[in-house]
Amino acid sequence: MRKNFLTCLALLMATVLFAKKVEITKFRCVTPIEVIRPFMIDSVNAGQKAFSDEMLLDSYTSLANISAGTEYDITGIPKSSADYSINLISFNMENRDFVKGKLSVKGLKNYRIYVDGKKSDGKEIALEPATHTFVIKYLSKKSVADSLSVDFDTDNPEDIIIGTSVKRMYTINSVVDGKRVSSVSISPSGKYIIISYLNTLEGGTLQRRFIAKEVASGKIISQGSEEMIWMPSSDIYYTLRKGDNGRDIVAFNPQNGSEKIFAYAIPEGRFQISPNEEYLLYSIEQEGPKEKKEIYQVLEPDDRQPGWRNRNSLFKYDIKSRIMQPLTYGYRNVWASDISKDGRYILLMMSKARLTKRPTTLFSLLRLDTRNMKVDTLVEDDGFISNACFSPDGKSVAITGSPEAFAGIGKNLPEGKIPNMFDMQLYIMDIASKSVRAMTKEFNPSVGNISWSTKDGKIYFTAENRDYISMYSMTPVTGKIDALNLNEEIIKSFSLADKANMAVYFGQSASNSDRVYLYDCKSGKSTLMDDISREILDGIKLGECHNWNFVNSRGDTIYGRYYLPPSFDKKKSYPMIVNYYGGCSPTSRNFESRYPHHAYAAMGYVVYVLQPSGATGFGQEFSSRHVNTAGEGVADDIIEGTKQFVKEHSYVDSKKIGCIGASYGGFMTQYLQTKTDIFACAISHAGISDHTSYWGEGYWGYSYSEVSMANSYPWQDVDLYVKQSPLYNAEKINTPILFLHGDVDKNVPVGESIQMFTALKLLGKETAMVLVNGQDHHITEYNKRLMWQNTIYAWFAKWLKDKPLWWNEIYSPKKL
Fold first, then answer.
1. Which of 289, 396, 421, 626 has the fewest CB atoms within 10 Å distance of its CB?
2. Helix, strand, or coil here: 396?
3. Among 774, 765, 761, 587, residue whose Cα is nearest residue 662
4. Model's pTM, two decimal places?
């Protein structure tokens, strides 16, 4: 009996050992490269080292071309008839979870291993989720027969897929690395466009590039690292160059390639050229009074912000006389919203504080006549306006603002409800009469950037349209709004030609990155000018993205979408991640967002994104639900949506659902856990745990509360500020929560995470906190963003996949 037991034990151990070994039998190979031994002048080199055949491996060979090789079985790898040859063979390893292992190469004497282009000894390989390229570079000799075997030893063989395909996973590096479009502009005639690019190299180095193209041919007429900007009234672009006496404005003619100096030795500072090209309008910051560093007075809440006492003033630099004179003088901030087409008038906006009443910042809109310095006040002390631009004839002004602007003429809500201040509307003012029309009162999308066309007289604007950013045109006389049928779900930027019915725009969608288009405003046709997405996604495997909406218990349609893993199988069971904001704006369909949904899906998660009550882009009534609710109703939408999604999609494991949100979404993460136990884990990044402390401590705490807690204050409404704060409901939380926070966050101070983490620790609840050194509200520094993102991935893997290896690798268990 003992013999049988030992036999069974031996078989079991053999099975376990075998299960840990993954044999690689197929490789991608290029033709062997012949190398020769050098002429031996001496027996040793300058370093007193004798020559060996292994040194032939030092011959430079690019690993980049290996993807173009041919697939072979291990027994069919091509041989060389040369005396010595360098052989490159490769395979891919795709792991959707963090794995560690050892690569064993047998049968070769002289070889080197490269993992993702970096040399490795093969002994201790740690692989973050991705598609990794392994290359074995070895030296073969004509007289020696190679007998090759390659194995990868790991405790997690079920987590890896071996292959030779050039297709690869979408990862965080796919998000942060590579070229993206940063801006587009079209020349006044519509014949040329300028595209600005920002390229991020691996490691975080940034490269800027500008390209000018001819529209008709697509031909590049100029490119370089110097910024290119169109002159206001001609197809001439300019750049800034350092001259003998300072900065010069150098103008280039794309038709003949000529250049000339438009303005010599201009003053330092930010400027724009007037539409008539007669002057430069400067905005110059002037330093305010300073306090002692050791001990200092804070005059009002915003005075805590560095540079808050500094003020902007406007100056006019006349190009002909080369004289610079002040246009404004004072201690209040002033900025220019627009310049009339003839250059005569400037639209000025001016702000002042009023802390005792909402809104606490008031804005005035003025029209300054540069010829006689007379000022016409168009809007005085209206805290709900945000931006403005002239009509082409200069007789009207288009103004964006919230529904409460102009005494609430744009408000479209039941009596007693307060609008969301971030739900932007469009107004038109007749300058002569000062009469104002509310143009979007019945229009649900929230207005974004506006531009009044000189060519056809229409107002073109972007707007949050549910979780899309769409583009529209409006006929000012009738107020008729038309949706433009553009080719992307998120329109990032657009530029109108002054003298042609043409525009250029760029954007992206839920499943593609940046693309640039020319748009014919008359025919409504878009023409692709540059497809950055194709370059970024070349060889990438993406899962599908689908819209999914549901009707909540209050009868509202709650919009959402979901992402599936690339090799989705509806017969399998998948963990799910739920993402939301829950604040004043939707979680948009940006492809490369703070939480790149396709990257989560690539790791084997179903990702559900929803737009709960309170978001802009769905109409004023819907967005007003953000005001004075502090999550009430919003959390119900998220909980109901999650339950309904699971009910309708049997491939989701209802026991393995995680959730994540940032800022107000971080608050929602915490608040949700006080209301439900349906989540297996949760992540709160920069979340608010106590509305009262955030209100008083965040740089914009009290001013954001004008939006979310309109006319409500901590000393007035304990139910809202205290009872709706997660901190005062901490004992209800049973879900493991990870708190992430930049330790110099000025928007939501890091104390918001610290106090909630402390509470859960004292309650004996499962929790963790990770702070990112030197980072503010957003984690933007390249390497820190990668580590921050990996922390998120590792937390989800630990709780949703029962795989704590990655988390323990990053944050090894410690006994203190």
1. 289
2. strand
3. 587
4. 0.94
Closest CA to 106 of 62, 73, 138, 132: 138
Say if strands 557-558 and 446-452 run parallel, antiparallel, or are unpaired. Answer: unpaired
CATH number assigned to the domain comprising residue 56: 2.60.120
Ranges under pLDDT 70 in the chain? 1-19, 143-146
Q: Cα(811)–Cα(738) distance, rounded to whole angstroms?
A: 13
Radius of gyration of the chain (CA): 31
pLDDT at residue 63 in the model:
86
Q: Which residues on neighbouring strands pair with residue 682, listed in sequence order?
A: 659, 737
The label of the residue with tokens 């180095």 reads 205
Amino acid at 323: I
Nearest to 667, CA basis, from 729, 605, 624, 593: 729
- Secondary structure of residue 137 in the 3-state scheme: strand
Q: Which domain holds residue 690?
A: 545-801
The helix (H) or strand (E) run that includes residue 771 is strand 767-772
Q: Which amino acid is at 50?
A: A
The residues, any chain, with a CB within 8 Å of residue 583's CB and separated by 6 or more, are: 614, 615, 626, 663, 664, 665, 668, 708
Is there a domain that residue 343 lies in? no
At 671, which CATH number? 3.40.50.1820
> Quick one: which of 23, 34, 146, 171 has its CA closest to 96?
171
* Residue (of 523, 501, 526) closest to 515 by Cα position: 526
Q: How far apart are CA 612 and CA 557, in angstroms?
A: 9
Write out the H or E segment, with its range, that includes residue 695: helix 691-697
Is 549 in contact with 593 (CB distance < 8 Å)? no
**Is residue 427 within 8 Å of residue 389, measured between CB atoms?**
no
Whether residue 302 is contained in a domain is answered as no
The CA distance from 688 to 677, in Å, is: 20
Assign residue 170 a region (left: φ > 0; alpha: ψ between -120 and 50; beta: otherwise): beta
Q: So what's the pLDDT on residue 9?
A: 33
Determine the Cα–Cα distance for residues 665 and 611; give it in Å rounded to an integer.
11
* Number of domains making up the chain: 2
Alpha helix locations (H) across 199-327?
none
Q: What angle do CA 603, 607, 611 make, to 5 degrees?
A: 155
Which region, left, alpha or beta, applies to residue 411 given φ > 0 means left and ψ of -120 to 50 means alpha? beta
750, HSE (Cβ side, Cα atoms, 13 Å): 15
Buried b (16+ CB within 10 A) or exposed e, 465-497: bbbbbbbbbbebeebebeebebebbbbbbbbbb
Domain-ending residue, one of 114, 148, 169: 169
Burial 146-183 (b: 16+ CB within 10 A, else e): eebebbbebebbebbebebeeebbbbbbbbbbbbbbbb
Sequence-ordered list of residues with C-beta below 8 angstroms from that of 611, at least 6 positions apart, any chain: 466, 467, 558, 559, 560, 580, 586, 587, 617, 618
User: Which residue bears the tokens 């502090």?
Assistant: 630
Q: Which of 622, 590, 616 is nearest to 446 (CA)?
A: 616
| Final residue of a structural domain among 169, 203, 228 | 169
CA-to-CA separations, 275 to 233, 234, 392, in angstroms, rounded: 6, 10, 11
Which of 401, 418, 465, 442 lies closest to 625, judged by CA? 418
Cα of first residue to Cα of last residue in the chain, in angstroms, is: 48
Q: Would 129 be classed as within a structural domain?
A: yes
Report which DSSP code applies to 533. Answer: H
Helix, strand, coil percentages for the chain (3-state, nearest 5): 20, 40, 45
Give the pLDDT confidence score for residue 285 in this predicted structure.
94
Pick from 788, 726, 791: nearest CA to 760: 726
Examine residue 93 and state whether it is found in any structural domain, yes or no. Answer: yes
